[in-house]
Amino acid sequence: MDNIDAELALQKITKIQNLEKKFSRVYYVPGFAFLFVVIFIFINNVFISPIDNGYLAILLASNIFVTGNAAMKRTEYLRQIIALKESECIAR
Q1: Which structural domain range is residue 46 located in?
Q2: Where are its TM segments located (predicted)?
């Protein structure tokens, strides 16, 4: 019986660690998306031609979407982590 409890506890700990890794990776998505937009606009304006307002609006809208999606994923990962840690505390 103790082996089963230990195995379940180990699985919970592993799951929490995996979720925390995913949570920390998603943290960097908005920054990278912003850098991508700035670099793209700079390269396009310097080397190609000034960007139209329509393309700029689409680019910024996609940046907002990516940032919002990353925030929603972070929230979901955080909820899962909290739920697992609470169930671990209750089990003790």
Answers
A1: 2-91
A2: 26-48, 54-72
Amino acid (one-letter) located at 15: K
Total number of domains constituting the chain: 1
**51, 41 contact by CB (below 8 A):** yes
Q: Are 67 and 36 in contact (CB under 8 A)?
A: no
Rounded CA separation 26/91 (Å): 30
CA dihedral 37, 39, 41, 42 (to 10 degrees): 160
> Which amino acid makes up residue 60?
L
pLDDT in tens, 26-75: 988 888 888 988 888 888 877 877 777 777 888 889 989 999 999 999 99
